[in-house]
Structures are given as C-alpha cells and as structure tokens.
Amino acid sequence: MRNFEYYTPTRIIFGKDTHYQIGDLLKQGNYKKVLIHYGSGSIVRSGLLKEITDSLDTAGVSYVTLGGVVPNPRLSKVYEGIRLCREEQVDFILAAGGGSVIDSSKAIGYGAANPWTDVWNFFLKKKTPTDCLPIGVILTIAASGSEMSSSAVITNEDGWLKRGCVKTDLCRPKFAILNPRLTYTLPQYQTESGCVDILMHTMERYFVNLETMEVTDSISESLMQTVIYNARILMNEPGNYNARAEIMWAGSLSHNGLTGCGTGGGDWACHQLEHELGGQYDVTHGAGLSALWGSWARYVYKENPERFAQFATNVFHIPCGLDFEKTALQGIQAMEDFFRSIQMPTSLHQLGLDLTDSQIHDLAFRCSFEDTRTIGAFMQLNMKDMEKIYHMANADHTNA
C-alpha cells in the first residue's frame, strides 16, 4: 500500500427538510453577502430558491443570485460570477444544485479571491490559487461528490476544452446540506447517470496496479454494491426515500478521498477520456463514463487480471477459480449488464454518437494534450492507446 493523507473538513447536514437551516448556518458564520448560484431554473420552479431566500431573509443575511449553470459548466458563467462577487462584495457562495453548480461555484470562488491572475490558469495548472471564497452546498443531484471534494471541472468555450482545476483544500465546501427529497424531481436519466458517476469515482480509485489496503478495498466494494442495488430500486421506485438517501451518501463518500486511502490516488483514465468527450459533444458525464468504461476495462485488464477478478467476485459474486482472466472478463460483462439494466449506454453509438476516424483521432489528440502526456495508472495510456479505446467504444456493444 502507499502512504496517504486523509482530510475531510466539510460539515454534513443530512436528512429531510435540512435545507431550511441555511439562514441560521450563514448567520452563525457571520457572512454578510451571499451569492446563490444555481442551474437552469428547476430550483425556481420547484420552489426551492424561494425557500432558501425566505430562510436568508429571516436570518437577516443579504444575497444576490446567479443562475444559468449548464451541465459541463462554462468558463463564461464563471467570469460572470467573479464580476458579480467583486461588484457586490460577496463573502460567501452558496451552490444550490449538483456537481456542475458546485464546480462553477468553486471556480468563481477561486477567481474572486485571486484577482492577480485569470482563473483559467488554475485549470491549465499554470498557477496555484492562494485563497478561495468560502462555499456551502445545498445538494439537489447525487452524482459528482463535489460537495466534499477538492475537485472542480470547467469547460472553456474557446476550443471546448474541459479541464480539472489544481486540487487544493481551499475550495472544499464549509458545509453541505444533503436532503434526499430534493432529488425527487430529477428525470430518471439524470438519476441513473448520477449513479454511474458515483460508481466511477470509486472504481477509478479501486483499479490500481499495486498492493492495496484490505479495509479500503472492502469499503469500496461495499459502496459499489450499495449503489448498484439502490440504482436498480430507483428504476422502478423513483420516490423511494431510503434508496435516494443511500445513493446520496454514497456519492459523498465516493469522492471525499476515503476510497483512495492507500491506493496511490487511483487511475482516472476513464475520466480523462470522458472529459474530452464531454467538452466536444456536451454529453452527460455519467453516461459518457458508462459508454467508455467497458472498452477501457477490456483494453487494460491483462495488466492485472487478478484485480478485475477480485472486483467480479466481491462486487458481483462471480465465483473465481484459478482462471483470473476468465473471471475478470465476466466481471466486466456484469458491470456492462448493470449499466444496460439502468438504461445507461455501453458504447458511443448508444450515447448517440457515431464518430469518424478523424473525430476519434482529434479526441485522442486533445486527451493526450497534443501527444505530450500519458494518462492512467493501472496501465499508462499514450495517444495511440487512447485512440484505440475510443475506437472500441465507438462500436455498438448492445449484444456483447
């Protein structure tokens, strides 16, 4: 196992009607002016925004609002938020939404607190932020785990580059309010795509080609089983509170660093491959991940088939004898079967894309930063490897 540090400073307030506490929380923090940042308007239609502003009014906390965050959040909206924070002297950002809203809030927080450079430099990893406006979250989508993480991903419309920020604890939310009832209005596709994202945050850390900690593996395997079980329930019972609660808490645990303790940080190749897909074609993140994962897994599993066999046995209860390779392939098949059972794609064709050779080459060229980097830890992938995986995913695996 590898040495590690584990730090989770975010306060979690979990349960029914917990979002009504927001005014008191901000008043206790002595915050004077809050930016309420949200997405396309669903929190307006559902009444959640009014409940938030009523709570702030009662607590005597001033606020301004900025909506319009889209999936694969845009740099232009971040710039708009930075300007608003400076003009209004905002001292706290409240992200009311899912991962896109939270990531946009983190980027705004970095930009507003570091006027000495363009915030995009933090995503190009040319500069490191020295401060960030404090951030809180009212979570409405269980998926990204950004409510407890130090991560943020933004898409720059100039070139459609989707990049992750330099990771620092400065942007970790001070608190996150997790009320599973706020996820009831989500379309089924978004709910299940979120479940895939949660699974992948655990799987990226799980699939490493080194000796791991048994306790970390057990936590990861249990998390994966919990998400798989409850994702299936939500296909038929979207209003099942307990299933939504399990998924919501699993989402936070999957991306707060817990499942990476002793694993050396994880692989993350699938996320890097999907970032280019999302940046270029604006696909839903979780769906993009499910469309790519099986192809990645079949391309790399021979580096350590025993690890994939362990996954097959401990997550899907597939018996494992001495033939690790056979068991590994059965496990990959079982995961793809699960994706299909929750109506998630397992190929780019099922995602609605039929890419040309030239488009695939361009994705690999971008993902490799113009053939200057490799990705992955389970198996290091160069540009040619990336191109082959995209080609594999471009085939229709419906009958695989």
From TrEMBL:
<feature type="domain" description="Fe-containing alcohol dehydrogenase-like C-terminal">
    <location>
        <begin position="194"/>
        <end position="393"/>
    </location>
</feature>
<dbReference type="InterPro" id="IPR044731">
    <property type="entry name" value="BDH-like"/>
</dbReference>
<keyword id="KW-0560">Oxidoreductase</keyword>
<dbReference type="InterPro" id="IPR018211">
    <property type="entry name" value="ADH_Fe_CS"/>
</dbReference>
<protein>
    <submittedName>
        <fullName>Iron-containing alcohol dehydrogenase</fullName>
    </submittedName>
</protein>
<dbReference type="Pfam" id="PF00465">
    <property type="entry name" value="Fe-ADH"/>
</dbReference>
<dbReference type="Pfam" id="PF25137">
    <property type="entry name" value="ADH_Fe_C"/>
</dbReference>
<feature type="domain" description="Alcohol dehydrogenase iron-type/glycerol dehydrogenase GldA">
    <location>
        <begin position="9"/>
        <end position="180"/>
    </location>
</feature>
<dbReference type="InterPro" id="IPR056798">
    <property type="entry name" value="ADH_Fe_C"/>
</dbReference>
<dbReference type="InterPro" id="IPR001670">
    <property type="entry name" value="ADH_Fe/GldA"/>
</dbReference>
